[in-house]
Amino acid sequence: MKIQILGSGCAKCRALAEVADQAARDMGLTYELEKITDVKRFADFGVMFTPALVVDGAVKVSGKVPSLDEAKEFLS
């Protein structure tokens, strides 16, 4: 599974990365976590608001940091 975090590296972006990482570890998933900070790449995903969580190429949430339980739903 490929998990991508789109954002500038702000506090919310770091929080989203931590939540996604924790959710994946709790679920025992095999995954790769990539942080994308290049604004030009955000458009490739159609993302207008950051932070954004992308799982296997599909945008799951944009503009907010989900709870741990929400993140687990996005990863399942």
Secondary structure layout:
Elements: E1 2-6, H1 11-26, E2 32-36, H2 39-44, E3 52-55, E4 58-62, H3 68-75
Parallel strand pairs: 1-2
Antiparallel strand pairs: 1-3, 3-4
Helix pairs in contact: 1-3
Oligomer: single chain
Radius of gyration: 11 Å
Biggest sheet details: 4 strands, mixed
Overall geometry comes to globular
CATH architecture: 3-Layer(aba) Sandwich
Number of helix segments? 3
Distance between the termini: 10 Å
In total, the number of domains comes to: 1
CATH structural fold name = Glutaredoxin
Arrangement of strands in the largest sheet = 2-1-3-4
What share of the residues does DSSP label as strand, in percent? Answer: 25-35%
Low-confidence stretches: none
The computed structural class is: alpha+beta
SSE pattern = EHEHEEH
